[in-house]
Amino acid sequence: MNSKPIIFFISLMALTLVLVVIFQLKTDPFQNVPAKTQQEQTVSHQADAAIGLFSDNCARCHGSFGEGKGRNPSLQGNSLSHEEIASIIRSGRGEMPPFHKLSDEQVHILSALVEKMQ
């Protein structure tokens, strides 16, 4: 029996496999995935900022998800407007202290997040 055709066939298959692997490694699997639009990037940045601000300033008293903690009220299911929420953040209410250190933009971002908890 002549083993040359079998060796040739195996070599050809190995070469084909190597070429397929090389092609796959050089091809970007995300090339057809569209890049985020400017608006999507902005929304993503605002969401990250809101979560960070909430964690740093609100979660200790209102819970990680705004569910309330101890005597501190839940922020979920509130019926306050964006402006009312912003006013409470700036001026405080009841036992909640005012947050003067927050910029207008930060207050706006937090107010939007709490408003979405409705």
CATH architecture of the domain at 44-116: Orthogonal Bundle
CATH superfamily of the domain at 44-116: Cytochrome c-like domain
Using DSSP, what is the number of strands? 0
Q: H/E element string?
A: HHHHH
Radius of gyration: 28 Å
CATH class of the domain at 44-116: Mainly Alpha
The name CATH uses for the topology of the domain at 44-116 is Cytochrome Bc1 Complex, Chain D, domain 2
Structural class of the helices, strands and pairings? Answer: mainly alpha
Sheet with the most strands, sense and barrel status: none
Indicate the percent of residues in helices.
Answer: 55-70%
Outline type: rod-shaped
Low-confidence stretches: none
End-to-end separation: 80 Å
State mean pLDDT (0 to 100 scale): 86
Total number of helices: 5
Relative strand content: under 5%
Characteristics:
118 residues, Cytochrome Bc1 Complex, Chain D, domain 2, single chain, mainly alpha
SSE layout:
Elements: H1 4-26, H2 38-57, H3 59-62, H4 82-91, H5 104-116
Helix pairs in contact: 2-5, 4-5
What would you say this structure looks like, in words?
The protein is built from 5 helices and no strands. The radius of gyration is 28 Å and the shape is rod-shaped. With 118 residues, it is mainly α. It has a domain at 44-116: Cytochrome c-like domain (Cytochrome Bc1 Complex, Chain D, domain 2, Orthogonal Bundle), CATH 1.10.760. It starts with a helix and ends with a helix.
